[in-house]
Specification:
- The structure is a single chain.
- The protein is of the alpha/beta class.
- Keywords: Amino-acid transport, ATP-binding, Nucleotide-binding, Transport.
- Belongs to the ABC transporter superfamily.
């Protein structure tokens, strides 16, 4: 569904943050990018979402060249971003956020059209907070609202930047479970996560981004996946417990994507 080739992106001339990044994501899966702070994860998502223009390279969505298009056009093409830091409108209520946001994608490019009620079913915690302002919500509720608002745009590709950052483990697990279920609704998910273990438990493919360079995709179900991810991250075996020590069934998406897309 998404194909990126030789993408170089920077904020200043001749200072690239991403170096010739290439990636091909099949549709209807959950795909994770892990990497340390400052690796360029946000930069990559913002480039796909049309907030940043690459210096070189291309971004293709379902065979259509969307390189360098503006964010509004990326949304029309079926891409939504749930940004890091949430960026909610603090004085508006949950209801305001969900009713003010409408499907942005054109009919042809649109994914599922999520009604407000659909989204409250996905995030029951928000139903109880419908008339509360964003700044009155807990961190977990704010993150749920960020995701719900992005889904209101009816995307086929949802970009989630560190959606579990700073959340209690149970809330983070709930968020990951929602993401794992989205491919069932025709939404492909590209999510950045700080922890290799969480990414391996959730995603169908994991890419590691370090210092602006992206690894080849790793299939977390293969025998050497943990070692491979760890090696890409430059970790020793003691730095993070094995992904296989956690039950995968809690969040792993049940619909595997086709091998090619
Ligand atoms: N608006 C900006 N102007 C200049 N440099 C920036 C800007 N935003 C990010 N950078 C730099 O680009 C590099 C990559 O940042 P980015 O936020 O993409 O990394 P990240 O992997 O998402 O890290 P984090 O998890 O800390 O958000 C960093 O060196 C950062 O300082």
């Amino acid at each position: 569904m998404l194909r990126i080739g030789e993408l170089t992106v920077g904020y200043e001339p001749d200072v690239p943050v991403l170096h010739t990044v290439s990636m091909a994501l099949p549709p209807n899966g959950v795909h994770a990018i892990v990497g340390p702070n400052g690796a360029g994860k946000t930069t990559l998502l913002h480039t796909i979402a049309g907030h940043l223009r690459p210096t070189t390279g291309y971004v293709m969505l379902d065979g259509r060249d969307i390189t360098g298009i503006r964010a509004v056009r990326a949304a029309r093409a079926g891409i939504a971003l749930a940004p890091q830091g949430r960026r909610l409108w603090s004085s508006l209520t949950v209801r305001d956020h969900l009713t003010m946001t409408r499907p942005a994608a054109t009919a042809q490019e649109q994914g599922r059209d999520w009604s407000v009620d659909d989204l409250l079913d996905v995030f029951p915690a928000l139903a109880a907070r419908l008339h509360h302002r964003a700044h009155e919500l807990s961190g977990g509720e704010q993150q749920m609202l960020t995701l719900a608002r992005a889904l209101r745009l009816a995307p086929r590709l949802l970009l989630c930047d560190e959606p579990t950052e700073g959340l209690a483990p149970t809330v983070a697990n709930r968020i990951r479970a929602v993401l794992a279920d989205l491919p069932r609704h025709g939404v492909t998910v590209l999510v950045t996560l700080p922890q290799a273990r969480a990414a391996a438990n959730l995603a169908h493919t994991v890419h590691v981004l370090t210092a602006g360079r992206l690894s080849d995709p790793v299939d977390p179900t293969t025998t050497h996946a943990d070692d491979l991810i760890r090696r890409h991250l430059g970790l020793t075996t003691d730095d993070e417990p094995s992904p296989r020590t956690e039950p995968r069934t809690t969040v792993r998406a049940c619909h595997r994507p086709p091998a090619h897309g």
